[in-house]
Amino acid sequence: MKTTPITSADLARSVIAVPPLCRDEKLELADAENVRLIRHLEGGGVRILLYGGNANLYNIAVSEYPALLDFLATNAGEDTLIIPSVGPFYGNIVDQAAILREREFPAAMLLPTTFPATPSGVATAVRHFVEKSNTRAVVYIKDESYITPDEVKALVDDQLVAWIKYAVVREDPLQDSYLDELIDKVDSNKIVSGIGEQPAIVHLDHFKVIGFTSGCVCVAPRRSMMMLEALKANDLDLAESLRKGFESLEDLRNGHGPIPVLHHAVELAGIARTGPPLPLLSGLDEGLLATISESAKTLLDWNTMA
Q1: For 201-212, what is each residue's pLDDT tens digit?
Q2: The domain at 8-304 falls in which architecture?
Q3: Is the whole-model pTM more than 0.70?
C-alpha cells in the first residue's frame, strides 16, 4: 500500500474505485476473494481504492475494523492508495479514529448521514476525526444539506481535508448551484465527481473537478480508466462512447440499489465471490439476478476486448 499523502496528481491519474467487500457464508472477510478483486482492479490500471458505501462499511463492527485495515494495507500493491471509511455516527468515528492513528493510511472518508446531523455538527466531527486519528479526511457530500460550502472551505483552509467526494444527484448535472459555490470557495483540484461514469463528463469538463469515483470500474477497470484518460485529453467524443458502455449496469444500480446490484454484479461476472451482503442490507430477488448477470458479463467482456 502506498502511504504518501494524496496529491491532485494522484486523483488525476486513476479512477477511484469504490469496491464491494467480499464475505463468506459466515459473514467473515473472505481474504482470497477480496485479493482477487483488488488484483482485477490493479490489472486494469486502477491505483486508488476507496472502501465505503459499496463495501457496506456503514454496518461493519468496530471490532472487525483493525483486521480489515491490516488486510487492505498488506494486500494492496505498493503503488495503490487505500482509503477506508469511518462512521457515519460520531461514536464510530471516534473509535475508528483511534484505530487509524496506529496505522499509515493517507486519508479516510467520513460516511455521510443527514439524521441525526447538522452541517456544523458534521464539520466538528471532521475536526475531531483528524485530531484523534492524525489522518486527513475525505468529505463525502451526498446531500447539499449535509455541510455548507463555507464549512468545507474552513476545513480545507485548515488543511484537514485530503479531497472532497461530490455526489449530489441532479436531474441536469450542468445545473448545480451548490457545486458552483463549492468550486468558488475550494480549489477544484480538491474535488472529485462521486457518482460514477454517468455525470463524470460534465463534472470534469464543465466544472473542472480533478477526477471521478466509480463502482462499475470494479467490473470494467480498463474501460473506466480509458474514459478518464479521454477526459484528460479533452477527447469528449471518445469519453462519451465509453460512458455509454456503463449505462446498462448503472441503470440497474439506480433502479434497484447501487450497493446490492454492484455486490451481485462482481460475483455474477465471475470476478470474485462477494458472498452474502452484511446486514442491514440483503440480497436481491432471484428474478433480478439473471438481468444483472447479463449486464455484468457484457461489461466484463467489453473490458477485455481490444
Answers
A1: 999 999 999 999
A2: Alpha-Beta Barrel (3.20)
A3: yes
